[in-house]
Design brief:
heterodimer; A: about 100 residues; B: about 190 residues; mainly alpha; 6 helices; elongated
């Protein structure tokens, strides 16, 4: 089991995959900045930008930080505090009435 | 890639890598609290300048692209060290460090111009939360650059062969984490005004 875990830990993407991810990250960044300046997107700007940002975040974590190929325990160690931080942020925003301020 | 001097946990995973992921998890909580604080006080400043008046999107877009490309250089450095290519390890580690320094240069320029336009840490809630959040991130970038320089020096001393690939991988984890934090900051602070 230990040997199997070590082998799984060592699998990394190829250089071509790294370059492809960089290309996608560049395109998403250009789209992000582009939609910021287009008035037609203003109504859906927040969900659109958060989706694009989330995609970039996931790409870097999965391919550059190797979580896609690495052992699942590393993913667990990373995602639990990440979700906790996200939960605390959302809870605080409700507590401070941020969502009420924006809708009312 | 061999891990001659590596200590494994009972799971068979490297203990240093496991510990570093736990550290990154704690960093998620740190930056989560800083970003939350920024969002909680967003739009509550009673005096200007406001984000709409002062943030420079074109300049920050370039610095964001710069940091993204530094992440590419970092993974290329890791690939080079894994195949034992000493020259390209130095090229890509050096490139990553230089791109990190360029990012810090953009941040110094931004902070300086904001201060000249009247936004300081004490001006309003936006100034306080903005400088604390981006300042902490900049501090992390600076630590990353120093770490990269030490790796580069060790490479020139002939102490960064394929058996030390994990050292580069762990430095890379730190660098990429700093990158993903900026991905969030760029969207939440700069684009969602």
């Amino acid at each position: 089991m230990a040997q199997e875990a070590r082998q799984k830990e060592r699998k990394h993407p190829s250089v071509d995959a790294y370059l492809a991810v960089a290309g996608v990250l560049t395109i998403i960044t250009l789209v992000e900045v582009g939609v910021f300046y287009v008035p037609a997107f203003q109504r859906i700007l927040a969900p659109l930008l958060l989706t694009l940002s989330g995609t970039k975040f996931a790409l870097v974590v999965m391919f550059y930080m190797h979580l896609k190929a690495d052992h699942r325990l590393f993913t667990l160690i990373f995602t639990v505090p990440l979700l906790l931080a996200l939960g605390v942020a959302v809870a605080l925003m409700f507590l401070f009435g941020v969502f009420v301020l924006q809708t009312g | 890639m061999s891990h001659a001097a590596t200590h494994y946990t009972s799971t068979g995973l490297d203990s240093r890598k496991m510990a570093f992921w736990a550290f990154i998890g704690s960093e998620c909580l740190l930056f989560g609290s800083l970003i939350s604080t920024y969002l909680l006080y967003k739009g509550r400043s009673v005096v200007g300048p406001t984000p709409q008046e002062i943030l420079n999107i074109p300049v920050t877009s370039v610095s964001t692209f710069d940091l993204l490309m530094s992440s590419l250089a970092m993974v290329l450095a890791l690939a080079a060290v894994e195949r034992g290519d000493k020259v390209w390890v130095r090229v890509w580690l050096g490139t990553t460090a230089v791109l990190g320094i360029v990012f810090l240069g953009f941040q110094v320029y931004e902070f300086t111009s904001f201060v000249h336009e009247g936004l300081t840490l004490q001006t309003n809630l936006f100034g306080s939360t903005f400088f604390i959040l981006t300042g902490f991130h900049g501090g992390h970038v600076l630590i990353g650059v120093l770490w990269l320089v030490t790796l580069l020096v060790r490479s020139f001393m002939g102490k960064l062969g394929p058996e030390k690939a994990l050292n580069v991988e762990i430095a890379g984890l730190y660098w990429h984490f700093v990158d993903v934090v900026w991905i969030v900051i760029f969207t939440v602070v700069y684009l969602l005004q």
